[in-house]
């Protein structure tokens, strides 16, 4: 059934197809149909960041930027749902076209640029949702906020979403907002993380609950840079790291249609880079904080590979677009089949 739906949707322009898919999944969720159309994955409970997940396979940020289909995605069997990236103010993102399919490589290139309706719209959608499971909210900075003032936008975002999120992801790794990735390094990173941690402590007192903070990083750093980021996360008391965002590399897609379009590459070509980053992080962190792995999961075995490399949870995005809800069940089953340590 999904193969037929995908064939029809892939006849449309990628962004049109994306918007229609969100509308359809959202409508199915409101009517309670998605759970009837999809076989639920097996239960595989896991506790990470002090949160209880029914299974370790989640929806990655970027697919439902505005929280318009929370119930719909939850009914498909995801163990958790992450929405966003959302910015303090609405913004249109980069000029179209900005989303490209590379079906020969099971890949996508996007240069969306944090297009979203703003944090207040997202929170209205969260309030309207019936979903009571683990909800991550991914926050970023507005494109016209100078990098040296980025912390202001992240603190606004954290203040607004804190009471409504199970965990908050800080996106400092999108390649489509100028200067954003510089926040992953050195003093800029430590200053941002320290400010976020202090605000987290203040908000925990105010709201009577502690909401974990996860930092999403890029796959294009050297091993040494990845280790330095890991050390900074531990030193500043972050709760998790998400590895990884999209890549600026074009290995394996250079000669494909749209392969040299600007933007972040996701899907199968980023799999090895992402898994390598997970291994480097795991080797440095040694269990001191959990890793959420995302990047190139297009088969259940790829999800298991991420867990074996040191991740506690996985997320899917491009693989879901190409394979549909069956990938969720396949990933859960593959993880369940891993030998127990």
UniProtKB/TrEMBL annotation:
Pfam families: DHO_dh. GO terms for molecular function: dihydroorotate dehydrogenase (quinone) activity. It is found in: Cell membrane. The keyword Flavoprotein applies. Substrate binds at residues 65, 110-114, 171, 176, 245-246. The keyword ATP-binding does not apply. Binds 1 FMN per subunit. Residues 44-335 form the Dihydroorotate dehydrogenase catalytic domain. It is an enzyme of class 1 (oxidoreductase). Keywords: Cell membrane, Flavoprotein, FMN, Membrane, Oxidoreductase, Pyrimidine biosynthesis. HAMAP family: DHO_dh_type2 (MF_00225). Catalyzes the conversion of dihydroorotate to orotate with quinone as electron acceptor. This is Dihydroorotate dehydrogenase (quinone). The gene is pyrD.
